[in-house]
Each structure stands twice: as C-alpha cells, then as structure tokens.
Specification:
- With about 230 residues, the protein is α/β, with parallel strands linked by helices.
- The chain is about 40% helix and about 15% strand.
- Helix 8 links the parallel strand 4 and strand 5.
- The radius of gyration is 17 Å and the shape is globular.
- The protein starts with 13 loop residues before the first helix and ends with a helix.
C-alpha cells in the first residue's frame, strides 16, 4: 500500500453475526448473485474527498478489482458524483451555515461528469456516470440512478465509495427500501474514522443489506448463478 493511503480496521461485532445467524440460519443474507443483474455503484470518488482523506485513496484498488470482475462477468459499473448544488436543498444553508454550504455545493466539481472523478480510477467508456442532488443516489427524484437500475434489470447493488456513513449509507438504505438486494463492501468504502465506518457497516448489516469484503464479492461474481 502507498504511504499516503490507509485502510480501515473494520469489524462487525461477533454478537451481531450471531444474532443474524440465529434469525436467518446463515451469516450472510446473499450467498449468490447474478452478474448480469448486478451493478457496482461507486459513490463520490472525486478530488474533494480523495485529496484530503487517505482512506478514500486507499480503497481505489479494491473498487477497481470489483469493477473489472463485474465487467468481465457481464455486470454494470456505475459512477456517481455530487451535483454542483447543496445536498440538503433549501435547508443546507440553515443546517451547515453559508460557508460550509457553499463548500459542499462545490464538492463534485464542474465540467463533464467523467472529468470530475478521481484520476486514479479506471472508468471505462461503457460505464454510466451520473450525478445526484442529495446524499443518497437512490432517493426518488434526486438522481437518474434508480431509473437506470430498472432499465437494466438490476436486482443487486454493490455499494462502494465515500463517505461510508453519509452518502454510501444513505444510498444503501434507500436502495434496500426500493427492493434492491444491497451488498456493502467493507474494504471498498471509506469514512474519516474507523468508528464512523464501522458504525455504518453495523447499521447496514443489521437492517438493510449484507456486508462483504472485496475478495468475497469477487468470488460471488465468479461463481455466477448455477
């Protein structure tokens, strides 16, 4: 690993694994996926977050591993960037104050959507790139992503990106609420602290989706439906 990158010390507490195993008879909710109906969702991997956070830079190789495996298997890789506006609409200035509101409104950068992504990412011409006007990429009316998933027949979304506990968690919750199978990748999401990261993973695993490692997701893709 490069010296200017870091990886989270992530964990799900044993008692939570045990609770889920007792409830559904297995540790992981989703033990298979159909690559053709699966989308990797990469959230907010833009310079605003990557330049100042070594955890964001640290997950780039894992995002790339999943993307490559899913493309080869016939799945979809979709990139999401923040729109050039405040994420909480009219409430943003009141909530954050004018200075921070302006900062967040510009977090996604300007120009063509592909040009806004972090330079180290392997974004292919066939990959859709969309923008969102809220923290969640799956909240109705705030991103074209839900419509794109429906058009492609996607039933499973693999959530990666940053911040784990803000836009990624928000997107995972809304995706699950819309009926999609959600897999949050423990070592391909990044927050600012381990505590924030692990709290989000706990919430998703407890109530909204599965939590897997990059290696496990790649293995699930390789198995394909039998």
């Amino acid at each position: 690993m490069q010296p200017d990158t870091k990886m989270h010390e992530w964990r799900i507490e044993p008692r939570e694994y045990a609770r889920q195993e007792e409830r559904r008879g297995k540790r992981h909710a989703y033990n298979n996926l159909d690559p053709a109906r699966t989308a990797l969702i990469v959230i907010d991997m833009v310079p605003f977050f990557a330049e100042g956070n070594p955890y964001v830079r640290g997950i780039v190789p894992n995002v790339g591993r999943i993307a490559e495996a899913l493309r080869v298997a016939g799945g979809l890789v979709a990139w999401v960037v923040p729109a050039h506006e405040a994420p909480l609409a009219g409430a943003t200035t009141e909530f954050y104050g004018p200075a921070v509101s302006r900062l967040y409104a510009g977090s996604g950068g300007e120009g063509p959507l592909r040009s806004r992504l972090w330079h180290a990412l392997d974004v292919r011409p066939e990959d859709p790139v969309v923008q969102k006007t809220a923290y969640s990429a799956f909240f109705p009316g705030r991103s074209p992503l839900p419509g794109l998933m429906a058009e492609r027949g996607v039933d499973t979304v693999v959530i990666t990106g940053t911040l784990t506990n803000v836009c990624c968690e928000s997107s995972a919750r809304d995706a699950a609420t819309s009926g999609l199978r959600v897999v949050m990748v423990a070592d391909a999401n990044a927050a600012r602290r381990d505590e924030d990261h692990n709290a989000a993973l706990h919430t998703i695993y407890r109530s909204f989706g599965d939590v897997r490692t990059t290696a496990e997701v790649v293995d699930l893709i390789a198995r394909r439906p039998g």
